[in-house]
Amino acid sequence: MAVAKKAGRYCGGLQLNSLASSILCWKWRRRPAVVVPWTAICGLMLFAVGLISLFTGHVASDLEWYSQRLVKRTWYYKLDKGNRAPIDIWRSKFSNFYFACSERGPHFAPAVREHLSNGYLLIATSGGLNQQRTGITDAVVVARILNTTLVVPELDHHSYWKDESDFSDIFDVDWFISYIAKDVPIVKRVPENFMRSMEKPPYTMRVPRKSEPEYYLEQVLPILLRRRVVQLTKFDYRLSSDLDEDLQKLRCRVNYHALRFTKPLRNLGQRLVMRMRKMAKRFIAIHLRFEPDMLAFSGCYYGGGDKERYELGEIRKRWETLPELSADEERSRGKCPLTPHEVGLLLRALGFENNTYIYVASGEIYGGEETLAPLRELFPNFYTKEMLAGEELKPFLPFSSRMAAIDYIVCDESNVFVTNNNGNMAKILAGRRRYAGHKRTIRPNAKRLSALFTARDKMDWSTFARKVKSCQRGFMGEPEEMRPGRGEFHEYPSACICQKRSKFSVINNNKGYRNLDRFLNVSEPEYLSDEEQSENRLPKHKNESSGNRTVSITMAETDRDDFLSD
């Protein structure tokens, strides 16, 4: 009875008298069950599964992120002996962990003999020296794809630069032929007896930009087999940047080894380098593109007031198809070259001292000495090829490509290379310097720097310098910037740079250490200035008819970023 009363009093969790408890309990037990629709149950289950997936997915990704950071941070600190050492503005401390690797692979078949090849490939390049260099490099690879004999490419004599130089005036043609002989047969001209035997002249065509190897095999090879001689015109960036590893390595062998300048150009270039080194143990080379035509084409404004707007506007009228551009929008998008003054501010903010020696590689500068004055004030030890060479430069003065070759040599040999633009020479030299040991190469992060330069008067120098250093993270030529698939291959030749084996290596893909590791990502980098490096100053060493077919050319194909971009 006591148990019943106790049960009654607490029935349903309520403490009531015995009679009330009995009535309430009876009604509670007799209450009809609530029917829940199956659709609601399924919806709740799906919602719960979604929440679980979302939560576990975030957890998994966070765990992966933290684990990767831990692995990379551990390796970084082992290399630095546990210290967060500042970045050396003169050289990368990680460059010794990488080496150039463009040798032929074991399965790369030797070159076919000339008489057994599929015919002869004629190439007409386009643009300035460095744009033509990319065309020559890709021409060798296309000849390999087509299993054909390459005729030494013809240089462009009709573009903006109006240079009458032939291939043999700029490059060592015999060295070029012999160096590539194991990969592709190359001849100086199509044999005369072969030309006489042809019923029709060579077939001329232009291929689309960045064409895949399959395009050449499907569209060009059948014509080559039928006609035996094919000429590809305006050949610049006509081959995809993404090729298989053996073909990418062939690109590197051509660009970094086979394309050697002629002896007179090499000798003068090296003399200028020696003269710079006599004055300073190390120096910066600045590639400064600031010609009136280039500035007009860019559509940007550089602070010269109404005079500049009128003069550049008149030059811009030469191109009828150019779209109207907003100068402010172009600058915010990082499309405007830095002014000489901005280049000087960038270098000083990074930590280069006022007594640093600089070599300026440039053509005609818009505004002349007045435009260059702020850069000279920031770096009084200012030199150009004209200042260093004097009378020795006279034989080359009428030829813009040969003058560009001299600048190329000095820039390549400099301790630090800086550019104010994103043109062909900037890209080609950036790739070459990576290949040659990740020599310090500073590319301005123009998109982020533009806002800083605009607001420079609103902050003190230390704040400005700190923000510049932060902006330039990832634009200093460090090995960590190399990622397969990033940018043009000529600028990021990842297939041709390998990582040395070491106990700190993170990735081993059974093909050597490639796919270069990302090092520690620090949000606020530190930089060693000249003063702080005094104990360790020296580095360790329209419709257009084209032959038999008509090709429609548009501004999109011409790619405004490549125009006047050497």
UniProtKB/TrEMBL annotation:
Start-end of Polar residues biased regions: 545-555
Tagged with keyword Transcription: no
GO BP field: fucose metabolic process
Basic and acidic residues: bias regions: 534-544, 557-566
Molecular-function annotations in GO: glycosyltransferase activity
InterPro entries, sorted: FucosylTrfase_pln, GDP-Fuc_O-FucTrfase
This protein's UniProt keywords: Carbohydrate metabolism, Fucose metabolism, Glycosyltransferase, Membrane, Transferase, Transmembrane, Transmembrane helix
Membrane-spanning ranges: 33-55
Pfam families: O-FucT
Positions of region (Disordered): 527-566
Family statement: Belongs to the glycosyltransferase GT106 family.
Designated name of the protein: O-fucosyltransferase family protein
